[in-house]
Amino acid sequence: MPRPDDSAKPTRWAGVPAADRVSARRALLLDAALELLGTEGWSGTSVRAICQSARLNPRYFYESFTDLDDLVIALYDQLIDELREQVTDAVEAAGEHDRMRALVRATVEFIDADHRRGRVLYVEALGNEKLNRRRVETGFIIAGHVDAAGGSGDPLSMITASILVGGFSELLLAWLNGLITVTREQLIDTATALFTAMTDEAGTLPRC
């Protein structure tokens, strides 16, 4: 088992400015949280386990986070920010008629590149009250990106986007778990066609 870091050992942080040390230790804790929460779930995720995985003394945990909830919310926010950046870049680089496909592809590729991300975002987020609230709040933000990619900006298109976001999360989880056995390209093609059809159909409904 890895031994916690000890401040008496100067080699690890020697010559590193104090602010950079804090930032580096915070990153180590976030990486450890992703590994534990993304593989073992809540049952294997604790302050002690995270510190052991990061090889940090527990006192360093509290220089960046108030408690375990604070850490996992920071991890969730980090993953969402990374996903948002990847999706935004893809959508902005796509042509007007390819924005929905770009959004779907970027999301699928982000989750498929590291399945731990999917577990944190779609599974473990449901097992913690504070994290679940953040998940719900974030869902509306993501729906706004979907609306921008395929909607018209009115309440009806936002309702459609919210349904798509919730359904897409369940679809990705089922695919990652092997319950839906299609290739990544088949998933992207089918989801894009379905989402485009739904947003187009929503455009024919009476406006709110």
Number of helices: 9
Query: What is the SS-derived class?
Result: mainly alpha
Note the gap between the termini: 59 Å
Give the helices and strands as they follow along the chain: HHHHHHHHH
Please report the total strand number as a whole number. 0
Sheet with the most strands, sense and barrel status: none
DNA-binding region: 46-65
Protein name: TetR family transcriptional regulator
Keywords: DNA-binding
Domain HTH tetR-type: 23-83
If you had to describe this structure to a student in words, what would you say it looks like?
Keywords: DNA-binding. Residues 46-65 bind DNA. InterPro entries: Homeodomain-like_sf (IPR009057), HTH-type_TetR-like_transc_reg (IPR050109), HTH_TetR (IPR001647). This is TetR family transcriptional regulator. It comes from Saccharopolyspora ipomoeae. The protein has 208 residues and is mainly α. The protein contains 9 helices and no strands. The protein has helices at 18-39, 47-54, 58-61, 68-93, 99-113, 115-122, 129-150, 155-176, 184-202. Helix 7 crosses helix 8. The N and C termini lie far apart (59 Å).
